[in-house]
Specification:
Largest sheet: 6 strands, mixed
EC number: 4.2.1.17
Strand content: 5-15%
CATH class: Alpha Beta
Enzyme class: lyase
CATH architecture: Alpha-Beta Complex
Strand order of the largest sheet: 1-2-3-4-5-6
Number of strands: 6
GO molecular function: enoyl-CoA hydratase activity
Organism: Ruminiclostridium cellobioparum subsp. termitidis CT1112
Number of helices: 12
Keywords: Lyase
Distance between the termini: 44 Å
CATH superfamily: 2-enoyl-CoA Hydratase, Chain A, domain 1
Length: about 280
């Protein structure tokens, strides 16, 4: 339902769905119906393949989505049978060889990727994690998170030989507690959907074919309530995440980047490649 603002209530022009849905269509296919925005991560209509371009586009997309008052509930999901595929070879060039401006850009984008989602999207959010893959922290940050039983929540950083800093450990610490989170950070052990439900990372597990319809069911239930109730409830629910990001995310990220900028160990990529099946579909 469109906002009912008084004639004197001027606003700077908001984001236009037609413009930003086209701008980000390479990595996000967006559809909107009755105020519910579905954002489907993808590459070539298959599982999203992570790249530094994807990393950059994410942080910008959250701003445009949040600036559109026609978006009243957001559903975030993936494509096919995986949430996201990552290629360890994005780290083929050692971080210590990146230019100072490369590193600075990475620092800011890594912060904004999560901060812009939490601080700029003022509507209820639902993640439907449709299978295994990396960067599940984005789905975990949503107000409600549902997933398939084969979802794979894990932090790969220590497996590769570097401190964790991109947000997965942060979301684990704030969902399952510091003791459990430390175990999963050190071991890289898989947290599947059922375990994630037991630990409190997700709210429901469903068969893949029913996952998205359940997300829409939840979104439509939210739309039955007044706009103010939806947005102010989201504000209350997201406040702990805002506090966690302000208090700790920069700290985590700075430790990771310090280590990677100075580390002479050449085994980082090799260690990640040994676990390649965790990052990518088995047929690749």
């Amino acid at each position: 339902m469109a906002e009912k603002l008084s004639s004197w209530f001027d606003r700077v022009e908001s984001s236009q769905f037609e413009a930003y849905s086209e701008k980000y269509k390479e990595i996000m296919l967006m559809t909107r119906r009755n105020g519910i925005l579905e954002v489907r991560l993808h590459t070539g209509d298959g599982p999203l393949k992570f790249s530094w371009k994807v990393h950059s586009m994410w942080s910008q997309a959250w701003i445009d989505i949040g600036r559109d008052p026609e978006n009243e509930v957001m559903i975030l999901t993936g494509t096919g049978d995986r949430w996201l595929d990552a290629d360890p070879e994005v780290w083929k060039r050692p971080f210590r060889e990146w230019t100072p401006d490369d590193k600075l850009k990475m620092y800011h984008e890594s912060l904004r990727l999560l901060e812009n989602m939490i601080f700029n999207i003022d509507i209820p959010t639902i993640a439907a994690i449709n299978g295994p893959g990396t960067h599940c922290e984005i789905g975990t940050l949503c107000d409600i998170t549902i997933c398939t039983k084969d979802a794979d929540f894990f932090d790969p950083h220590f497996m590769g030989g570097t401190p964790p800093g991109d947000g997965m450990l942060l979301t684990l610490q704030n969902t399952i507690g510091i003791k459990r989170a430390s175990y999963y950070a050190y071991t890289g052990r898989k947290i599947d959907g059922r375990t994630a439900l037991e630990l409190g990372i997700v709210n429901e597990i469903l068969p893949r074919e029913k996952l998205l319809s359940r997300a829409w069911e939840l979104a439509e239930m939210m739309m039955e309530r007044p706009r103010a109730a939806r947005e102010l409830t989201h504000s209350i629910i997201s406040r702990p995440w805002k506090q966690a990001l302000v208090n700790d995310q920069g700290f985590h990220l700075a430790h990771q980047m310090y280590h990677m900028s100075n580390d002479e160990d050449t085994g980082f990529l090799e260690r990640l490649m040994k676990n390649r099946e965790r990052f990518q579909a088995k047929h690749e």
